[in-house]
Amino acid sequence: MQIKLRVFRFDPEKDQKPRFDTFFMDVDPNDRVLDLLEYVKADFDSSLALRRSCAHGICGSDAMRINGRNYLACKVLVKNLHSDQITVEPLLGLRVIKDLIVDMEPFFENYRSVLPYLINDEALPEDGKERLQTPEERDRFEDTTKCILCAACTTSCPSFWSDERYVGPAAIVNAHRFIFDSRDRAAERRLNILNQQIGVWRCRTAFNCTEACPREIHITTAIAEVKQAILSGKV
Amino acid sequence: MTNIHQYDVVVVGGGGAGLMAAMYASQRAKTAVISKLYPVRSHTGAAQGGIGAALGNLEEDSPEWHTFDTVKGSDYLGDQDAIEFMCHEAVQAVYDLEHMGLPFSRTADGRIAQRPFGGHTNNVTKKPVRRACYASDRTGHMILQTLYQQCIKNNILFYDEFQAMDLLLVDGKVAGVVAVELATGELHVFHAKAVIFATGGHGRIWEITSNAYAYTGDGCAIVARRGIPLEDMEFFQFHPTGIYKLGILITEAVRGEGGILFNKKGERFMERYAPTIKDLASRDVISRAMYLETRAGNDVNGQRFFYLDVTPETVNKYAEIDGRTRPDGTPYRVTAQEILSKIPDIADFCQTYLGIDPTRQPIPVQPTAHYAMGGIPTNIMGQVVIDEQNTVLPGLYAAGEVACVSVHGANRLGTNSLVDLIVFGKHSGIHAAEFALGADFVPLPADPTEYVREQISRLHAGSGKEKAAAIAREMKAEMFDHVGVFRTQEGLEHAIQKIRELQERFKDVRVTDSGKIFNMELLQTWELGNMLDLALVTAQSALARTESRGGHARDDYPARDDVNWLKHTLAWMDRDQIRLGYKPVVITKYPPKERTY
């Protein structure tokens, strides 16, 4: 099918302000949007800059705005967009560095702030083997282990757009993953962090994050569980 | 302007092996990681099915059986001392990961869950054994996340989005690496006592591949240009179940859970090629069977693909035929819901890219370039060894897919990639720190960035007559057609000639983006140069080896030839020529015998 692809361009070494480049191309409806960007690089303009690696929705490199919504470019097919006009822009709420590349550092800083690692200083089992955890205990946080830190959720959140100090849904998801892990012993510390002004209460339940998540994590539910844990003092 | 940094140990690469190495090295020595991707973007995260370790949580198993299965899987080209070491270390390595917080799937009694995988057997009964420890079907993702989390906890120092481009050697000793910072285009010299390469594989030299765009063989190319040989490069694994055309991996765990492969006649063709374990034979065996089925006209629609069927009807029918039972002895029967809960990500891939539900429809699959058995030669401590006598190059280490210990020999056993990167990542980190504490810095060369600047200016100075994308496309097609699952002398000679022609044409490529900031065109053009070099080394190594073994199958030499070829290939890039040498395979307990499944 014939499509019109508009791509956000900005070269900080040359351009005063961003522009859109337009490309007309013949594509397969089953092509990924990432494939289209690769066609641009191969056949039209090899200087287009973007991040990408695994190309099948696992590495989290290529989150971007496609027709006004956050997707991984490698996980959305042309036919899923139901349009022959496709507009690709960088994520909102993070500084654009060049073309589709944004500054991810504020995002990772928020992630690091919630202590996203197992904390348990108790002695390991004497036989040196695994700590036990029932399938039910594991199910409690299974959903939030799926996060690939692509930032599609956080950069779709109106609260984050208005204040980038807000830790954002991705950081809360990663806090949830440990708060509800039966092996972890630092839930209280994380809940205290998320109970602060720039923590979980900035969430206004817009649901954008859940819709944007390419891993289909029930983010709003996870955030609600964290809020509930803060209020009840129980996990 | 050049920035100079000084560390005891520099790790190049932020995937599973690099993060393990960094964690252990940093316990004793001042350590930094440089990585072209954010570490969580690394390809370790794409591993799905599991990590093999003989925990015996569901049935009897032992590291000895794991060792033998790996030796057999390697078609006897793996070094048995290294394999034995790895399989014994695997058990503690998996417990270590669990202690770090890895959310393994669990058995009913709360232990780490395990499932069958290709080539994992009970050595007495010869039946499949549950050895693959898994976290749903995203085991690699969880390993990468867990290690990165631990690195944050331990304040590991990262230089993210820094592309290493050169290894500095002075008088045969390591002095450091040179990298370009992608965000600024500036060159950085990392003066180091020890350098660990953990840069992953090079599957992107083939057209159909499960590998990430980043898998361009940078580590191998960098060290080869500095005179270090590459080992066993003719051995590259083609995984039999890549999604048709896209190459995206469908884990072997799908067959572990009962999935069956069919040809266009609806025949379970693996019965004919591996009568005992059928659809759970080693990957090379199944990929070759698919090729032979294609040649016999049994591929679907004449389009070189087959069906992988994991619908409950099919799984249950064949589980009954095979007499498969659950751990408690009851017959193995599954529902669509149970299948989905075991392979949710696979179901998601099928839905996204094929528009099908794998519990209702079969998945179209074909062999996909998946894993480099070959790479930078090392010993079991991760030290790089540079000749037929295994002479150590002081201060240089490699671990993970970029390295060739060799534990995978001619064909890697499923789940052993994760075992490899955990075990050898750890030991290279420990050993590099130990080495660094007892060593002095080797003074930097007078102009440490000279070679990198020269490479970069060449890429900007081409005539522009040729396009990088066209050269890449031709290389990938040539490699898939002639240096793929089956090879012949004629095809390999054709490939060598073609790659040399492409290397010539590559000199006429010009990078159009002259900017400094995130010049991804420059990076990717440089990566193409790496891939062309490795394609040539692969084809040359393959042409010389006149036998069939594991992942290297020759139509014109169909048998394994232990008399002449039970040895590792070493390939040196001497300017434009490839020079080959050989070294013996280490055999301890398991003398080579015929390999059947």
UniProtKB/TrEMBL annotation, chain A:
Keyword Mitochondrion among UniProt keywords: no
Keyword tRNA processing included in the entry's annotation: no
Cofactor(s) listed: [3Fe-4S] cluster; [4Fe-4S] cluster; [2Fe-2S] cluster
UniProt keyword annotations, A-Z: 2Fe-2S, 3Fe-4S, 4Fe-4S, Iron, Iron-sulfur, Metal-binding, Oxidoreductase, Tricarboxylic acid cycle
Gene Ontology biological process terms in this record: respiratory electron transport chain; tricarboxylic acid cycle
A molecular function (GO) term: succinate dehydrogenase (quinone) activity
Matches recorded under PROSITE patterns: 4FE4S_FER_1, 4FE4S_FER_2
Xref: Gene3D superfamilies: 3.10.20.30, Alpha-helical ferredoxin
Pfam family, one: Fer2_3
Listed SUPFAM superfamilies: 2Fe-2S ferredoxin-like (SSF54292), alpha-helical ferredoxin (SSF46548)
UniProt EC number: 1.3.5.1
Residues annotated as domain 4Fe-4S ferredoxin-type: 137-159
Lineage: superkingdom: Bacteria
UniProt similarity note: Belongs to the succinate dehydrogenase/fumarate reductase iron-sulfur protein family.
Record-given protein name: succinate dehydrogenase
Automatic annotation (TrEMBL), chain B:
UniProt-recorded name of the protein: succinate dehydrogenase
Residues at which FAD binds: 13-18, 35-50, 218, 401, 417-418
EC main group: oxidoreductase
UniProt KW Hydrolase keyword: no
Organism the protein comes from: Anaerolinea thermolimosa
Positions of the Fumarate reductase/succinate dehydrogenase flavoprotein-like C-terminal domain: 473-597
InterPro entries given in the database record: FAD-dep_OxRdtase_2_FAD-bd (IPR003953), FAD/NAD-bd_sf (IPR036188), FRD_SDH_FAD_BS (IPR003952), Fum_R/Succ_DH_flav-like_C_sf (IPR037099), Fum_Rdtase/Succ_DH_flav-like_C (IPR015939), SdhA/FrdA/AprA (IPR030664), Succ_DH/fumarate_Rdtase_cat_sf (IPR027477)
GO terms for MF: electron transfer activity; flavin adenine dinucleotide binding; steroid dehydrogenase activity, acting on the CH-CH group of donors; succinate dehydrogenase (quinone) activity
Subcellular location: Membrane
SUPFAM superfamilies: FAD/NAD(P)-binding domain, Succinate dehydrogenase/fumarate reductase flavoprotein C-terminal domain, Succinate dehydrogenase/fumarate reductase flavoprotein, catalytic domain
Cofactor(s), names only, from the UniProt record: FAD
Keyword terms: Electron transport, FAD, Flavoprotein, Membrane, Oxidoreductase, Transport
Xref: Pfam families: FAD_binding_2 (PF00890), Succ_DH_flav_C (PF02910)
